[in-house]
Each structure stands twice: as C-alpha cells, then as structure tokens.
Specification:
By secondary structure, this protein is mainly α. It has 2 domains: about 50 residues; about 160 residues, no CATH class. The chain has 10 helices and no strands. It is elongated.
C-alpha cells in the first residue's frame, strides 16, 4: 500500500462508511493519478459537508460550542494555569483541585455533546472552535504562564468526542459525576449581571444535554446522529 493511497484513505474517512468504500473502489478501478483522485475526493467531501450545513443543527451546535469556549473553557484554562503558577506544594491542590475538575468535566461534556449532535460536521466545528482560542493566544500576556494553557481544554474535549463517536451511552452516575462539579459555577456571584448569569447558564449546555439524555430520554440514546 503506497503513501498516496494511505492519504486518500485518510481523507475518505470524512465520508460515511458505505460511500467511502464505493468512492475508494471507483478510484482504484479507474487507476486515477494521485492528484486527480485527491481533487475528486476533496470535491466530493466538500459537497457532502455543504449538504450537512443546510440543516439547522450544525449551526446551533457551532454557536453553542463557541459560547462555551468564550464564556467558560478559555477562562477556566487560564484560571487553572494561574492557580498552579501562583501556588506551591499542597496549596496547589487546595487552590486548583475544583477548577481543574470543572475544566476537565465541562470540556469532556462539550466534546461529547458536540460529537453526538453533529457528527458529520465535527471537524469543521472544532476548527471553528480554534478561532477564539487563537484570538486569545495572540493577546495573552501573563508573566509566568504559558500561552498554550489556553488550549488545555482541547484534550478532554477530544476524549469526549471520541467517546461519542464510538456510540457509548453514559450511565446516570457518570452523567452526574460530569455535571455536578460545574454546579458551583451557578452559585450567586455579586460580580455577575443578569445577562452574564443567563449566558453562563447557556454556556453550560453540554451538561444540560448529558442530563437530558441520561434522565429524560434514557432509552432513546441517539449516539449515531449523523447530521
């Protein structure tokens, strides 16, 4: 198997399984040159992606993940980095334990919910998610804290997305373990205006999604959503 063919197979993973096998079979049968085959394959992938984005769901999911990143994930990532940088020894655990747990759980839930609701547009959605991160990266200036801490939420988010892509249904206790650490974010805060509080509630939508799946419609899990 040549490197060119491996590249074609890698790009073809963006297509549904049945269509992927048919397209690769046609390319192999026609013995197309690599450049022509890649061009034809990418054109087909682009058309399929545009078809997906004609539905309302990918737009809502993309807006939701951008809201979560702006309101929670970037801020929590920087907050954890600051707490670790400004404390030492046992004080690090005392100061950063809950924020770290919140960062991991909300990030994981965001990846899981995004992949569950909009699987076929997942890669574009994650590219869009990088935009606010790079904007913050460009202006981030905090002594003693790495610029790259802004992206720390991506690791648990990718783990959550992979879990959803495999079609795993979460038990109720797991759902509660993911959602409850973030409940403290909703405690009354004198620094929050009503608008900020409502935006925070909306930004926690991945947690609400997990709870709805586990408790409202526990026997109707749609892990194979392909929109």
């Amino acid at each position: 198997m040549t490197t060119h063919w491996k590249l074609l197979e890698l790009h073809a993973r963006l297509l549904p399984v049945a269509e992927r096998e048919a397209v690769l079979g046609d390319i192999a049968e026609a013995e197309m040159p690599f450049a022509a085959a890649l061009s034809s394959l990418m054109g087909l992938i682009l058309r399929r992606q545009l078809d997906c984005w004609r539905s309302w769901r990918p737009w809502i999911v993309a807006a939701g993940i951008l809201l979560s990143i702006y309101m929670l994930l970037v801020g929590e990532s920087v907050s954890v980095a600051l707490l670790v940088a400004r404390n030492a020894g046992h004080a690090i655990f005392a100061a950063a334990a809950l924020p770290t747990l919140q960062l991991i759980t909300i990030s994981w839930a965001t990846g899981y919910a995004t992949a569950s609701l909009s699987r076929r547009t997942l890669w574009i959605t994650f590219i869009l998610a990088l935009i606010p991160c790079f904007c913050c990266f460009a202006v981030f200036r905090v002594p003693g804290v790495s610029h790259f801490c802004i992206f720390s939420f991506f690791i648990p988010a990718i783990a959550g997305a992979v879990t959803a892509m495999r079609g795993h249904r979460l038990p109720r206790w797991t759902t509660l373990a993911l959602a409850l650490p973030n409940a403290s974010l909703l405690l009354p805060n004198t620094h929050f205006t009503l608008v900020m509080y409502l935006l925070l509630i909306a930004a926690l939508w991945p947690c609400w999604y997990l709870i709805q799946r586990a408790f409202v419609t526990p026997h109707n899990f749609e892990g194979n959503v392909t929109t």
